[in-house]
């Protein structure tokens, strides 16, 4: 779907736009006057704290049943109890399911369990990480932030999309929302010059580890995936979108930096310029449920509760070719799960 943005991709990627958004723009909350999610079910990953917890809270406020997908069950149960406090809600309206994005097996088990749900309308893929130190995932060989932020989320989207298509409530298509970042637009993504591309992420970054660059690259890969997937899946089947809440203080993303100088710097900067997680989560909820945005979110990027351009690279001639190349490589990587066949079935 062609979109006329109110800003160019290059200006959207600019530092002045970022500061203006952080300091002067407050996304509005959605209320039940805007949308009533009673009877609907949502999955929120990384929901034990920070933005994920606040997203779950706001979806609950709109009447939605919520499944908290978490790596550590004890933290998920604590989050569940926090959400239940002072709320006139049945305990069954909040469930906690295990999900470890560092494991393809865990992702597939999670998706199998999702098939047992009577309905599934919304998926918010919030879980992600940045790595202060470079680490590789033993089972796949990929650098961990690429594995978790991109490949595992691409697998989860692929596996959950047909479930959302089949089990949505009513005639309105369900939505799958992948959380992105401003850093996607700033990533140099030098690996794109390699052929093939994905295997380069099994090699140590040299001459030194740049975690911000790698984090941004993992997020621009996600933008390419959503763009390509939306070309292959009708918005009548399921709406696939990506979103960005901006810099938020108190987010779980900062946990990796705890005990490091960069973590202290991040906390100070986010306190000065960042939004609260409750405000940041509003953007995710708009992407997941806003009736005003509706089907226009398909294959697009939601920021400040509006459609905005993704990374400038997405729209360049190079990006069009790159998106197709990454798509084919990603389908090859996820062939063990029958990714191509699943996507083909969604287009029928």
UniProtKB/TrEMBL annotation:
- What Pfam families does this protein's entry cite? adh_short
The GO terms describing molecular function are: oxidoreductase activity
TM ranges are none
| Keywords (A to Z) from UniProt | Oxidoreductase
SUPFAM superfamilies referenced in this protein's UniProt entry, alphabetically: NAD(P)-binding Rossmann-fold domains
User: What InterPro entries is this protein classified in?
Assistant: NAD(P)-bd_dom_sf, SDR_fam
Q: Which family does it belong to?
A: Belongs to the short-chain dehydrogenases/reductases (SDR) family.
PANTHER family, A to Z? PHOSPHATIDYLINOSITOL-GLYCAN BIOSYNTHESIS CLASS F PROTEIN, PHOSPHATIDYLINOSITOL-GLYCAN BIOSYNTHESIS CLASS F PROTEIN-RELATED
Recorded protein name is Putative secondary metabolism biosynthetic enzyme
């Amino acid at each position: 779907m062609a979109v006329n943005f109110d800003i160019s991709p290059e200006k959207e990627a600019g530092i002045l736009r970022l500061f203006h958004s952080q300091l002067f723009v407050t996304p509005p909350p959605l209320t039940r006057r805007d949308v009533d999610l009673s009877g609907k079910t949502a999955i929120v990953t990384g929901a034990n704290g920070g933005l994920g917890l606040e997203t779950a809270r706001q979806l609950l406020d709109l009447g939605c049943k919520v499944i908290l997908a978490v790596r550590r069950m004890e933290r998920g149960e604590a989050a569940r109890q926090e959400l239940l406090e002072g709320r006139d809600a049945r305990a069954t309206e909040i469930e906690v399911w295990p999900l470890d994005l560092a494991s393809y097996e865990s992702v597939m088990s999670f998706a199998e369990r999702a098939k047992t749900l009577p309905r599934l309308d919304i998926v918010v893929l919030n879980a992600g990480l940045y790595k202060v130190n470079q680490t590789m995932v033993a089972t796949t060989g990929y650098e961990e932030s690429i594995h978790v932020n991109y490949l595992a989320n691409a697998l989860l989207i692929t596996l959950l999309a047909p479930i959302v298509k089949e089990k949505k409530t009513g005639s309105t298509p369900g939505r799958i929302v992948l959380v992105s970042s401003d850093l996607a637009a700033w990533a140099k993504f030098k690996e794109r010059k390699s052929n093939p591309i994905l295997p380069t992420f099994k090699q140590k970054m040299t001459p030194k580890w740049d975690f911000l660059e790698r984090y941004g690259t993992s997020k621009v890969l996600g933008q390419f995936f959503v763009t390509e997937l939306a070309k292959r899946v009708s918005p009548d089947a399921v709406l696939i979108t990506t979103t960005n809440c901006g810099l938020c203080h108190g987010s779980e993303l900062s946990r990796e930096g705890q005990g490091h100088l960069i973590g202290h710097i991040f906390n100070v900067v986010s306190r000065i310029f960042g939004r609260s997680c409750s405000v940041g989560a509003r953007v995710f909820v708009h992407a997941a449920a806003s009736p005003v945005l509706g089907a226009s979110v398909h294959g697009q990027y939601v920021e400040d509760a509006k459609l905005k351009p993704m990374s400038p690279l997405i729209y360049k001639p190079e990006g069009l070719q790159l998106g197709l190349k990454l798509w084919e490589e990603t389908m090859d990587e996820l062939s063990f799960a029958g990714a191509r066949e699943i996507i083909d079935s969604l287009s029928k």
